[in-house]
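Slide 14.
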Amino acid sequence: MTSRERILTALNHREPDRVPVDLGAHRSSGISAIAYPRLRAALGLEPRPIRVYDPVQQLAIVDDDVLDWAGADAIELGRGFCVEDLWWADWTLPGGTPCWLHGRSRYADR
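Slide 15: predicted structure.
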């Protein structure tokens, strides 16, 4: 089954080939920005900037390599927005973890 078929099958109360997987496609299935770099490290993946798209819940955007590892069937529909680095500003999470926070262009002052 394709991811689309799997999700539609589950939504229609039929049994898909496996349970559909969602990691970060919605805020209710997101991952903490503090936990996200630890997950990447545990998976042996290269460090990447942590992009916090929800500052209240401090949720990280999940990168494609992690979605591939998880076998994710869903992606966030807003992924096409603010994908360039210039739309993210430096910020620090509680505990001192550096990250990027969406909000203003890095080049706004130029």
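Speaker note: Strands lie at 31-32, 51-54, 59-60, 88-92, 98-102.
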